[in-house]
Amino acid sequence: MEMYSCFSIKLFKAFRKARRHVALVRRRVFDRKNLALLAFLPTTTTTGAAAWIVTMSVSGGLTLARRAVEAVRRTPRWQKRLLVLTVGAGSLTYACQDNQVLQINDGTGKKRVVIVGTGWAGASFLRNIDTSLYDVHVVSPRNYFTFTPLLPSVTCGTVEARSIVEPIRNIVRKRGGAFRFWEAECYKIDPTNKKIHCKSDNGTNIDGNGDFVVDYDYLIVSVGARPNTFNTPGVVENCHFLKEVEDAQKIRKSVMKCFERASLPNLTEEERKKNLHFVIIGGGPTGVEFAAELHDFVNEDLAKLYPDVKKYVNISVIEAGDHILTMFDKRITQFAEDKFKRTGIDLKTNFKVVKVTDKAITMTNSATGEIAVPYGMAVWSTGIGTRPIIMDFMKQVGQANRRVLATDEWLRVHGCDDVYALGDCATITQRKVMGFHDLLKDSEGNAIKELKELDIEEFKKALARVDSQVKMLPATAQVASQEGAYLANCFNRMKYCEENPEGPLRIRGTGRHRFKPFRYRHLGQFAPLGGEQTAAQLPGDWIHVGHSTQWLWYSVYASKQFSWRTRMLVVSDWGRRFIYGRDSSSL
Amino acid sequence: MEMYSCFSIKLFKAFRKARRHVALVRRRVFDRKNLALLAFLPTTTTTGAAAWIVTMSVSGGLTLARRAVEAVRRTPRWQKRLLVLTVGAGSLTYACQDNQVLQINDGTGKKRVVIVGTGWAGASFLRNIDTSLYDVHVVSPRNYFTFTPLLPSVTCGTVEARSIVEPIRNIVRKRGGAFRFWEAECYKIDPTNKKIHCKSDNGTNIDGNGDFVVDYDYLIVSVGARPNTFNTPGVVENCHFLKEVEDAQKIRKSVMKCFERASLPNLTEEERKKNLHFVIIGGGPTGVEFAAELHDFVNEDLAKLYPDVKKYVNISVIEAGDHILTMFDKRITQFAEDKFKRTGIDLKTNFKVVKVTDKAITMTNSATGEIAVPYGMAVWSTGIGTRPIIMDFMKQVGQANRRVLATDEWLRVHGCDDVYALGDCATITQRKVMGFHDLLKDSEGNAIKELKELDIEEFKKALARVDSQVKMLPATAQVASQEGAYLANCFNRMKYCEENPEGPLRIRGTGRHRFKPFRYRHLGQFAPLGGEQTAAQLPGDWIHVGHSTQWLWYSVYASKQFSWRTRMLVVSDWGRRFIYGRDSSSL
């Protein structure tokens, strides 16, 4: 009996190890497929295909498990024992490998690359850097990577917080312990002495001082940004933000608290309305998606659980500009605004919030003047600002007058050596002088025509191309992720490209740049609008809004997950929501 | 295209509704099966059977889903449309039922029952009370029920926090909105005026005053207990407790923080050891289970992720008595102590903690005197104490000299009318006078023999039986749950039993008591010891320790879940752990 249970545990453990191997291989294959998939997207938009992809992703895992169980059932006993022996020996070998002392690349003469931050840019760099070439160190106040595009889903429990995070230590382990991670906050960059100063939570060591210093040869700054409050008084104290997983968890708890408070006896109608007034400040993609998610949560789940107070619920989106979702095509903006009006989300455009207290939000509008509205919960999502550490760093490198840290097209920070900045904390400035002939090359790099034959249309096209290159890149996961991968690729080919430079001609100095400059490849953008409808804007001016796009959204977001583990968790969360709805515990 | 996706969504929603119905029916059937299962347990101990039960529970759900999908695939198109129509019409009817205005039983002349607390006792009462007979109101600071026996699993991420909670509003909805729930804390009971005073979080209404008063005809006090610190200085400030879901979540985060802190550079060996010294104070079932879970977490998952610091990990269990798990059979205690010694958990018996600071725990022992040990994280789990609201209530009803609120065998609080107390906040005192002839009845109620023929063995047996009845009931989920069900049953039969009293003869007064007194039926107890081994002590002195008992534990705990939703979540969490291990994000 004891043996039998031992057998099952061994089998399970072996299965788990095997599963990891398979996952690793599949991940690699899938990532490649993924690109193909995205290229394929603009032409295939049928729901069927998207649903099929999701189903296949899910059923793949299930089938594997079922087959394993069935195979064990069918096998005669002596074969089972043989299997246990084989698998046992195999897993023992694997386990021994696991427990080997990790090779930390200290003192091997490798140059040290220090990465600050484990968001999209940092994690993407980490995934792609060849750790056999560098001594890689990572510092971040969070020991996990967050799949930020699903944060609005976490606020309402459509997806659980843990389903969208991947521990950095898992990546360390998958890479054979080839780099080091420290959970600490970098509070000062010292580019002169090539050091960064970090601090951990209190109580790290006996004297309670958690400070330490890390030397670097190359520094990758990918600390991201912080929410921009435009110094509006009361925002930090009274509003929620939506940048981190913890923010999303807090919002979720707060929504439930608002409903519970509004349900108490002895409240006036006014008070119930106040508690159930949810205000979103900022009509960007995050704010709009959160408003849509909240609206779904209220109508699909909470209306049934809080029937007495559902009539008091009011969701407002306050936007300083004329329209919401301004970075999208006009058709999408129009559709979103119409949909919000139809579903009862209160859209207040041209309103600027000037003050937030614990009781009311004060805003102004040229027509109405200043008005104050009581609210139950407010989420501030108006854009991003620069973190203090970056502001301090900018002063040191002579960028004190700029608003954002500037890098060149190779992501090198202007004004200091060996420091690279990517993701939301930096922006790329173009080379100032551009060869006129370069300008007149088409995207394949062929000179268009002789200069004298250029007509006005072609000149306009050329200018548009320049414009697209000079335009500031959006602060999105896509940009950060591509920058990370690009930079890691540069680092990996540092030696080769030193000898065989592939970049454009240097303007100052002679010869060519080592690497081609970073070029952003826009793969499209989604804006979920609630009610199982999503707006999609893909390259080639392909625009679609509807239920089919929602399924496209599901499949793209499932495929883009960091690991098979999180993919399984996210897909099973979606499934759980379909079957049981969202959880309403105020937890 | 649009239609096709509409179809899938409708189908999904219909499926979700149907699933809920099936779940409801299955739950009822399963609950009955469950009792049979537990009666059957002492004789069937094979792992196979237990594993089969788990597999069946899981595969039941999967098979259902698979069959549904296959059925849809195979059906011709016109039949599908017919199905959509039928299901659509059905679900429309159901949805209409859902949205009906809830019947709140106000002013119908029904007596009002107010339940304070939604733990095991309160939730069990709620599940069983006939809401057509009473106007039921529930007040609790948490809007969910927690499956507390799995709390130690939540501390290490074996099971997620949300998997073990069931929102009270879900129960309200399943019961057709037949009772009311308020998320607030009851801070004062006024038995003279039959009122309770409640307060909610701040900011409930415009003037920020969240107080309100609820009248009652019958009051059910099931507020549970609080951790008992024995007034040891520094415990509240520096130790974690393990009573609520939030406690478990905090412990989980704290464990990860300790590992991350210990991994930082610039720390001495001493400091790393300090950060990785996990201390559990109290050798009861909760403390021991947490120690075992933590040990598994460290060895199965964290050792691979933190290979540099795993050698510094130390888990200590401090117990004031001679042995841990004193409420279990000696064989289990012995096995647990041996196992802990073998696996390297440091067991400090006969040590009394006298002070806790943020740096060290001070304890005394008759042999060594006072010693102070530095620690990284401490969990205090030494037993339970009385909540302030109960102490205040005891003063009012003349029980100021007692340590715990006393009730009679019908769970009525001594010293006041129409107030019942159950669960951890109360204890049952026996009737003081007992008929000598009653004493000499065997368990079926037949008089054993004539008095003069009574031999010493039979007299001992009779005394043991008395002893078992007088002994204070343990503060466990089982007791609370049975008390809740018993009391609800009494309330449901109030009218009938008024006319047909079924209880024993009254000692003071004439006639019989209305109800039979509450009798606790002990169904057994588990003590998970880590490494997929569990100790079980079931009725009939059936004791077993090992891997097979772990599978028994899995199946019993899966079957005991509050709803099919949490059952699915818990089982899938276990599955996820088997495949991917526990999550190490410090979230």
UniProtKB/TrEMBL annotation, chains A, B:
It is an enzyme of class 1 (oxidoreductase). Residues 112-434 form the FAD/NAD(P)-binding domain. It is a peripheral membrane protein. Gene3D superfamilies: 3.50.50.100. It is found in: Mitochondrion inner membrane. Pfam families: NDH2_C, Pyr_redox_2. Keywords: FAD, Flavoprotein, Membrane, Mitochondrion, Mitochondrion inner membrane, NAD, Oxidoreductase. GO terms for cellular component: mitochondrial inner membrane. It comes from the Eukaryota. The keyword Lipoprotein does not apply. Coiled coil: none annotated. Its EC number is 1.6.5.9. It catalyses: a quinone + NADH + H(+) = a quinol + NAD(+); a ubiquinone + NADH + H(+) = a ubiquinol + NAD(+). InterPro entries: FAD/NAD-bd_sf, FAD/NAD-binding_dom, NDH-2, NDH2-like_C. Residues 522-583 form the External alternative NADH-ubiquinone oxidoreductase-like C-terminal domain. One of its GO terms (molecular function) is NADH dehydrogenase (quinone) (non-electrogenic) activity. Belongs to the NADH dehydrogenase family. This is NADH:ubiquinone reductase (non-electrogenic).
